[in-house]
Known about the structure:
Layout: H1 2-22, E1 28-32, E2 35-42, E3 47-51, H2 58-62, E4 74-78, H3 96-109, E5 116-120, H4 122-133, E6 140-144, H5 157-162, H6 167-178, H7 181-190, H8 201-205, H9 207-210, H10 213-233, E7 245-249, H11 261-267, E8 272-276, H12 283-286, H13 288-301
Parallel strand pairs: 3-4, 3-5, 5-6, 7-8
Antiparallel strand pairs: 1-2, 2-4
Helix pairs in contact: 1-6, 3-4
Amino acid sequence: MAAFWGIVLWKALRHERHAEADYPPEGQFLEVDGHRVHVLVRGQGPDLVLLHGASGSTRDMTFELAAHLEDRYRVLIFDRPGLGYSDRINRSGATLVEQAELLSRAAALLGADKPIVAGQSYGGAVALAWAVHFPERLSALVPIAAVSSIWASPMDLYYRLVSHRWLGPLLIPTLTAFVSDAYVDKVMATVFEPQDAPKGYGAHFGPGLTLRRKTLRANALQRANLLEEIRALYPRYGQIQVPTEIVHGDEDITVPAWNHSERLATRIPGATLTLLPGVGHMPQHVAAPDCAAAIDRAAKRAGLH
């Protein structure tokens, strides 16, 4: 058993080193209260923050969406805490509010005191927490396929295992050691349904970054805590006063629009909802111009364009 575990740890470390060599940081590092935050800055204009979803990194936003925005915005693309190349905040699962506080302070270090904040999926939930808890730190809000409402289905077995106090630390090194990047690429492709994953997405995204031990654990703990955090955030959406443009695909089976964005739009004063016909959970890729147009509308409503 000791020999087998040694092999597991060796293979896991080798996989991580290969992933980081193949997919190095795209941007720069900031330090906020001892926490290292990775951010990529592109373009010039009004400040815009982009926040990726679960299991993601800056590379999820640089594949397509950023190119539609950097000609007229200064785009700040962050790795959320524990993912990509940003440090974990803690070992219990960084909350939405903790992430919003850290990233809003990191943005301020770059002079972005009141950016437009756009987030996809889990990143959309962080954006909502940013708007609720730190309203003076943003000028407009754009949730994209955002997790925003309470749901009834139980957490799936994978997340129950990898977030478990004892089983997670045993299972995760095995996953890092033996699960191939190609398998992760295949699983990620299902998130695009009913669309196909764009050609070249997996090669750009870097599945090996997701398979690193610290990333698997941080992502799992964040996911395990999400429902209760949304339950606390949901009653406070009425406090959001900044211009809000919501975007969601009406064929999203991962975060169904009817239970999330359609309800969210009724709770935020003045919010506008754009439902994208036939689009699934990844509009930042398959409908990037529509997401960029929503950001433009938010900027105009905020008096930034």
